[in-house]
Amino acid sequence: MAIRIHLDRVMLERGISLTELAGRVGITLANLSILKSNKARAIRFSTLDALCRELNCSPGDILKYDSSGGGRSESPL
Amino acid sequence: MNLIGPKSIASKTHLVLKVVFILAIVRVLLMSIAPVLPYRSLQHLSFDIQSGPLLVSFDLLRGTEAKWWIWAMELVSRTYQAVVLYLLMRILAPVGLGEPFDLKTPSRLRIMGCVVIFGSVLRTFFCAQLLKLGLRPEPGVWISWAIDFDAILMGIVLFVLAEVFRRGYALKTDNELTV
């Protein structure tokens, strides 16, 4: 998948830990780790909304399209 | 009623299946050694052919080729019953743990479908061999070499279920990786 998550970079810039962000956003630490490590297959708008609110950023700061990064190519159901 | 855990219907059914499976294995073992057993009670095999139970005595058939075809037919029939029971048990085990869409369930269902179809074809072959040897059953009971379409239909149903479970597993994985 060519979509890359740059959550770690944004978190570093804001100086917020994974545990703290998970608590503020209202999702589990495990799910936030899945998102951060680029293993997630989908993200809910409500999660993205909460992340942008807590990190004071826009979706484009967290999600990037990298056409060179092939990696997993999974067709949606 | 609990949906997950040892008190769930799936877990209780799994336990029942386990007992039936052990009995099925004992039946297979007994059948495999039946021709050499000295006990007279075990020298009589009963099996169903199409329309009713047919008792065939090993004593009566001693020395004939038909005896071995009957023995092989019954052994295969009981073995495939045991295999189906084992696969059912394995399919039901994750259901009791709250994971109905297991990675291996589709392949188990496909194997079960193959076993059901292959078992019926094999039975038809054995029946045809018995007819060829001139074995005629008692009045009112008949041996048929016709293909068992019910078994083939059951096999197709199992293949369809395997595909449903495969899609279910894909959906479950997607759901788990949605944050």
Secondary structure layout plus pairing:
The complex is a heterodimer of chains A (77) and B (179).
Chain A (H helix, E strand, L loop, with lengths): L2 E3 L1 H8 L3 H8 L3 H8 L8 H11 L3 H4 E3 L12
Antiparallel strand pairs in A: 1-2
Chain B lengths: L8 H25 L10 E6 L2 E6 H4 L3 H32 L8 H28 L16 H28 L3
Quick gist of this model?
The complex is a heterodimer of chains A (77) and B (179). Chain A has 77 residues and is mainly alpha-helical. Chain A has helices spanning 7-14, 18-25, 29-36, 45-55, 59-62, and strands spanning 3-5, 63-65.
Biggest beta sheet attributes of chain A: 2 strands, antiparallel
Tally of distinct domains of chain B:
1
Sheet-strand content of chain B, in percent, reads 5-15%
Quick one: biggest sheet of chain B? 2 strands, antiparallel
Q: Find the structural class of chain A using helix and strand composition.
A: mainly alpha
Secondary-structure element order of chain A, N to C: EHHHHHE
The helix content of chain B is 55-70%
Structural category of chain B: mainly alpha
* Approximate shape of chain B: elongated
Total number of strands of chain B: 2
Spatial arrangement of strands, main beta sheet of chain B:
1-2
Total helices of chain B: the number is 5
Helix content class of chain A = 40-55%
Instruction: Determine the strand fraction of chain A and express it as a percent band.
Output: 5-15%
Could you state the order of secondary-structure elements of chain B as H and E?
HEEHHHH
The end-to-end distance of chain A, rounded to whole angstroms, is 15 Å
pLDDT below 50 for ≥5 consecutive residues: which ranges of chain A?
Answer: none
Please work out how many helical segments of chain A DSSP would assign: 5
Spatial arrangement of strands, main beta sheet of chain A? 1-2
Q: Which stretches of chain B of 5+ consecutive residues score pLDDT under 50?
A: none
